[in-house]
Design a protein that fits this description.
The complex is a heterodimer of chains A (about 800) and B (about 350). Chain A has about 800 residues and is an alpha+beta fold. Chain A has 6 domains: about 70 residues, Phenylalanyl-tRNA Synthetase, Chain B, domain 1 (2-Layer Sandwich); about 120 residues, Beta Barrel (OB fold (Dihydrolipoamide Acetyltransferase, E2P)), CATH 2.40.50.140; about 200 residues, Phenylalanyl-trna Synthetase, Chain B, domain 3 (Phenylalanyl-tRNA Synthetase, Chain B, domain 3, 3-Layer(bba) Sandwich), CATH 3.50.40; about 70 residues, 2-Layer Sandwich (Phenylalanyl-tRNA Synthetase, Chain B, domain 1), CATH 3.30.56.10; about 190 residues, BirA Bifunctional Protein, domain 2 (2-Layer Sandwich), CATH 3.30.930; about 90 residues, Ferrodoxin-fold anticodon-binding domain (Alpha-Beta Plaits, 2-Layer Sandwich), CATH 3.30.70. Helix content of chain A is about 25%, strand content about 25%. In chain A, the strands form 10 sheets. Chain A has a 7-stranded mixed beta sheet with strand order 25-28-31-35-34-33-32, with helices on both faces. In chain A, strands 3, 4, 5, 6, 7 and 8 form a 6-stranded antiparallel beta sheet that branches. Chain A has a 5-stranded mixed beta sheet with strand order 10-13-16-17-18. The longest helix of chain A has 19 residues. The mean pLDDT of chain A is about 95. Chain B has about 350 residues and is α+β, with helices and mostly antiparallel strands. Chain B has 2 domains: about 90 residues; about 230 residues, Bira Bifunctional Protein, Domain 2 (BirA Bifunctional Protein, domain 2, 2-Layer Sandwich). In chain B, the strands form 2 sheets. A 7-stranded mixed beta sheet of chain B has the order 1-4-5-9-8-7-6, sandwiched between helices. In chain B, strands 2-3 form a two-stranded antiparallel ribbon. The model of chain B has no long low-confidence stretch (mean pLDDT about 90). Classes of the chains: A alpha+beta (about 800), B alpha+beta (about 350). The interface between A and B is large, with 93 and 88 residues.
């Protein structure tokens, strides 16, 4: 919301030279009207003065340029060359002198033109940042020949109302009453403890007849239109508005058009009430019907677009057709044109959400609709239309017809609240007395009746004592509220076990060299094809966003894998040599009640020169061992279509599968356009957490030395070494503490289809030094078990 | 015999001093002192001596052995020192060569900031809550005093899963206020960080998914004074001691009174600069007293209990902290970016 400080001064005495922009912004912001920016308009145009063409002659060296001697009111004549053809001796024109600044940041410097000195530039209205509406008498492509009250030496910025400062406010949606000069003035008056000077509009309406005999209003859909007020003006004389009005409209960020349109905009900015002017001759039978659109109806709006209307859109209609989309835009069929004689001024109140939805559906958010959608004060319509008619009379733009049409289907209900001093102080932590509270409220326009607060109609946001507390706090000063802890802290706080486990996992993965990533929770359904998820997989049944931004972010992931692959691919495409990544992120699994289970997954992804299956296995193993402390089992997984069938494993803690890891299937890699080997792991956080290590109990350190023996056996090539180790550990007897593989060999001396596997056994007794016999017995037990289970024979 | 020993002394000492390597020195030891060495050779002739001469010669011989041994030892030390020096010289490395890669991973910069904030609140007796992102409109809006017609409910702003607008992706972490009030016993001190979703196209400052941190205190006798005291402390912890704050009235449907907390611009000290867009202040978070209607709606008697709440955006905080200019970097996860933190 842009606010002209010059205009504001009409209501509150806050001279620019007494209250600077910074001080103004600071004070208004901390009382609740946040200032986004301030602009000193006079700095946008500098040193542009009115000059009279004292003489003009052809440029000696050019067939289209002229050399003018300009009388600037005082001082010597200024010589300026121009290429314009419309300048004549005696004309008053704007002159950008040497060193001047024009809107848009253009600096003008004096310089010779074809060898003749030129100490500046004569300006067109466009160069002054103006439009044809500002200077309707000016020609479009030429120097602005000024008419009216201009004297040589006059400052153009001042003449155009640029001796003003504009403040841009951020108005919160609960305060639509502040979207106008009067509303802001009320806030400013209380903020600076100044008097608020309001003007009561008065209309003469001396002519004959009465609007009631000429027009009628029928609100058919009262739920969307709490009030409709109208007045009539006849013998309308469309003309440019006076300079003062144009200035204010311009400085508030709008464009002056003509007196009728400008008056509606001016009243909207002053009172916050959007208005519409109809050419009454186009309202068939003089009847205004406020109703929802009917099936098949359409309207060509003022912007020239034909728009189809739907049954939930409120329209202003005559007996036959819509003439305006209520609160959004008027129709071309009732537009004010040059020969309009009778104008009907509408000042109405429409249902906010309805206007917002209509404007959104039609794709045209207008100045009017953006106000209506916040819910306007129904008690403002009459005052606003009176003000418009007052301005009509003041500008001589027409004759106001006596009488007002004012329909309000449901009478206005005033909000009355008790002033709850103690509750308010208890909420704020203050000790403000009742009188101080009453003063603030009264200043803001609330009326006090004993201990009862009568809330003014424009403050529909105040319905509860906490709202009153905010009003008090705003002007008592948020920053005056004492800073103190009200009581002893009675809670302990801290991370939950789950959060501790999550932190631990993150720490381990980082210590293993992985960088943390954050990926979007939504993905494209096509990603399931990319990771070759089976067509009948239940995981394809994702939660679907009905109004996604795009296909790529349209479903909630049921697998964390596509997100990781996307990031690996991105790093690969950035030509990063390697990537080591992890994420602890949720997947979203549909529940029967329509919501989702959102389990967390530990996702790991890597590629690079030193990455292979066993590096990934090492990471998974280290992580799982540290978190669970349990014995892990790795089982080859050949069926997961996302992974290489020969380089993929499931990992188990006891009988519970924690997840899957391995090399990504080259066909998946191809789907992502990556030729490098990608390695990923998908582990369930919940399983990790459920199997987390209990508090370790100290084990006494061994008192006796351990003994180690190496054995080598030959067996079928396809027997998993892991299973052989399990077998040895299970059958080795009480002394066997550990078994590791140190060699797997095929080739020379080993028959086709067989392999040689060498194990190192570590043995120890807890209560004595081991004998050779003890060791022999262990080795023999291991060998016998290998023979029995795998038909493995000693080499 | 005495002469022979004298000759041996001279010859052996000279030879030892001239030796240049450990192996030759060892050869000399054998040559002079070994079982078949020269000194032994001389001693073998002791038999020929008279009984009076023998102990005398024996003494001389022993002294000679000691002297040779001493010379050998000294020379050995010298040669060992030289050998070590040569070895070390050969082992010299170029210390400016790159180190062996010891790779530690990095926490995502945004979670660095989040963890810092969690620690601050835990120190003040807060717990951390985690909630679902697929949420009921009831929790995301209705119970937070956001009426049916509120613009944020529009399908242009919020992602929905059902045609009746009942199930959605939460647009804020504030539904965690309601969950906490409904499930936790009083008093409550909690923060709830997490992902939230709004229908914004991706650009340098927008993302359809981003993170917020919600915080709430419900207890007897909690006032706006308490809110100010706590948040001032938090802001000082985040932005440094002596950070100047101001509380500015604002509007949120679920708090009343509501405020925004600004900090004085650290770049210009409040004079106004591009960082603070000339305002001298930087907006940090939104906060307010939990609306009594929200309390009552969650089954808490607003005449007995009161509370305050706040919400802040995590991305903007992290971007400010690390001077990250473009929000897209946060979710791009480029290794070259991640490795910087």
């Amino acid at each position: 919301m842009k606010c002209s400080r010059k205009w504001l001064n009409e209501f509150v005495d806050l001279p620019l030279n007494e209250v600077g922009d910074r001080a103004f912004a600071e004070a208004m912001s901390i009382s609740g009207s946040k200032v986004e920016a301030t602009e000193d308009l006079s700095t946008t145009m500098k040193n542009v003065k009115v000059g009279r063409v004292a003489s003009i002659e052809r440029h000696p060296d050019s067939d289209h340029m002229f050399v003018c001697q300009m009388d600037m009111g005082s001082g010597p004549l200024v010589q300026i060359c121009t290429g314009a053809q419309n300048v004549q001796q005696g004309d008053l024109v704007p002159v950008a002198l040497d060193g001047s600044l024009l809107p848009g940041g253009v600096e003008i410097k004096g310089k010779p033109l074809r060898g003749v000195e030129s100490d500046g530039m004569l300006c067109s209205y466009k160069e002054l940042g103006a439009t044809a509406h500002d200077f309707p008498y000016a020609i479009e492509n030429g120097i602005l020949i000024l008419q009216g009250d201009y004297q040589p030496g006059d400052d153009m910025a001042e003449k155009m109302g640029l001796d003003d400062h504009v403040v841009d406010f951020e108005i919160t949606p609960n305060r639509p009453d502040c979207l106008c000069m009067i509303g802001l003035a009320r806030e400013a008056a209380v903020t600076f403890s100044k008097e608020l000077k309001l003007h009561e509009p008065s209309v003469q309406a001396k002519g004959e007849g009465n609007i009631a005999d000429m027009a009628s209003i029928c609100i058919e859909d009262a739920d969307l239109c709490p009030r409709y007020t109208a007045r009539m003006v006849r013998n309308v004389k469309i003309a440019p508005s006076p300079e003062w009005m144009k200035e204010r409209i311009r400085n508030a960020g709008m464009r002056p058009i003509n007196n009728i349109v400008d008056i509606t905009n001016y009243v909207m900015m002053e009172y916050g009430q959007p208005m519409h002017a109809f050419d009454f001759s186009c309202v068939r039978n003089g009847e205004i019907h406020v109703r929802r659109a009917r099936a098949g109806e359409s309207i060509r709006t003022l912007d020239g677009t034909e728009r189809a209307l739907t049954a939930d859109m409120l329209c202003i209609c005559d007996t036959e057709k819509p003439v305006a989309v209520a609160g959004v835009m008027g129709g071309e069929n009732s537009e004010i044109v040059g020969d309009t004689a009778m104008v009907l001024f509408e000042s109405a109140c429409f249902n906010g959400p309805s206007v917002r939805r209509t404007a959104t559906a039609l794709g045209m958010r207008t100045d009017a609709s953006s106000r209506f959608e916040k819910g306007l004060d129904s008690q403002n319509t009459l005052k606003a239309v009176e003000r418009a008619c007052e301005l009509i009379e003041m500008l001589g733009a027409g004759e106001v017809v006596p009488g007002v049409l004012d329909v309000q289907p449901v009478p206005y209900q005033e909000t009355v609240l008790p002033l709850e001093v103690e509750k308010i102080n208890a909420l704020l932590g203050t000790e403000i007395d009742a009188e101080a509270m009453k003063k603030i409220l009264t200043d803001l326009g609330f009326t006090m009746e004993g201990n009862l607060i009568h809330v003014p109609s424009w403050r529909a946001d105040v319905v509860h004592y906490s709202d009153v507390a905010e009003e008090i706090a705003r002007f008592y000063g948020y920053n005056e509220i004492p800073v103190r802890f009200t009581g002893a802290i009675s809670t302990c706080g801290g991370f939950s076990l789950e959060q501790q486990c999550e932190r631990q996992i993150g720490e381990i993965l980082r210590s293993l060299g992985l960088d943390e990533i954050i990926t979007y929770s939504f993905i494209s359904p096509s990603y399931y094809d990319k990771i070759r998820m089976p067509k009948d997989s239940p995981l394809r049944d994702s939660l679907k966003i009905l109004n996604p931004l795009g296909e790529d972010t349209s479903i909630m992931r049921t697998s964390i894998l596509p997100s990781m692959l996307e990031i690996l691919t991105r790093n690969y495409n950035f030509r990063n040599k390697a990537a080591f990544l992890y994420e602890i992120g949720r997947i979203y699994l549909k529940r029967p009640d329509g919501l989702a289970d959102e389990p967390k997954m530990v996702s790991i992804g890597m590629y690079g020169p030193e990455v292979d299956f066993f590096r990934m296995k090492g990471i998974v193993e280290t992580l799982l061992s540290l978190v669970t402390g349990a014995h892990l089992r790795f089982v080859a997984e050949r069926e997961n279509p996302s992974y290489h069938p020969g380089r993929c494993a499931k990992v188990y803690v006891g009988d519970t599968c924690v997840g899957v890891f391995g090399q990504i299937h080259p066909a998946v890699g191809e789907n992502y356009g990556v030729s490098a080997e990608l390695y990923c792991a998908e582990l369930s956080f919940d399983v990790l957490f459920d199997n987390r290590k209990s508090l370790p109990v100290y084990q006494p350190l061994p008192k006796f030395p351990s003994v180690s023996r190496d054995i080598a056996v030959t067996c079928r090539y396809d027997i998993p070494v892991g299973e052989m180790i399990e077998c040895i550990l299970a059958n080795g007897g009480e002394f066997l503490k550990d078994c590791t593989v140190f060699d797997v060999y095929t080739g020379h001396h080993i028959a086709e289809g067989l392999k040689s596997v060498a194990f190192s056994l570590t043995m120890r007794s807890d209560d004595r030094t081991m004998t050779d016999e003890d060791a022999e017995a262990t080795v023999n037990a291991a060998l016998a078990a290998l023979k029995h289970n795998f038909d493995a024979s000693i080499r | 015999m005495k002469e022979m020993m004298e000759k041996l002394r001279e010859a052996s000492i000279k030879a030892i001093l001239e030796t240049e390597d450990v192996d030759s020195l060892e050869n000399l030891r054998v040559k002079y002192l070994g079982k078949k060495g020269e000194l032994t050779g001389i001693l073998r002739q002791m038999g020929r001596l008279s009984a009076e001469e023998r102990p005398q010669m024996g003494q001389l011989a022993n002294r000679l052995r000691e002297e040779i041994e001493e010379a050998l030892e000294k020379r050995s030390q010298v040669l060992e020192a030289v050998r070590m020096e040569k070895k070390l010289l050969l082992e010299t490395v170029d210390v400016t060569m790159p180190a062996t890669d010891v790779r530690l991973g990095h926490k995502h910069p945004m979670y660095n900031v989040l963890d810092q904030i969690k620690d601050i609140f835990i120190g003040m007796g807060f717990e951390i809550l985690d909630g679902n992102e697929v949420e009921l409109a009831d929790y995301n809006f209705t119970k937070l005093n956001i009426d049916e017609a509120h613009p944020s409910r529009e399908w242009t702003d919020t992602f929905y899963f059902t045609e009746d607008s009942r199930i959605l992706l939460r647009t804020q972490t504030s539904p965690m206020q309601v969950h906490a009030m409904e499930t936790k016993s009083l008093p409550i001190r909690m923060i709830a960080p997490g992902r939230v979703y709004r229908k914004d196209e991706v650009d340098a400052t927008h993302s359809p998914m981003f993170h917020q941190i919600e915080g709430m205190v419900i207890d007897k006798g909690v006032t706006m004074s308490d809110l100010k005291a706590t948040l001032n402390l938090v802001v000082e912890k985040i932005y440094g001691e002596g950070t100047v704050t101001r509380f500015r009235p604002h509007h949120f449907p679920f708090t009343e009174p509501s405020a925004e907390l600004d900090i004085r611009c650290h770049k210009c000290g409040g004079k106004g600069c591009p960082t603070c867009k000339g305002e001298g202040w930087i907006e940090v978070l939104g906060c307010g007293m939990v609306h009594p209607k929200v309390l009552a709606g969650c089954g808490i008697d607003p005449d007995v209990y009161s509370g305050w709440a706040f919400g802040m955006g995590l991305e903007r905080l992290a971007m400010g902290e690390y001077k990250i200019a473009d929000l897209r970097l946060i979710f791009e996860n480029d290794e070259r970016f991640l490795e910087q933190f």
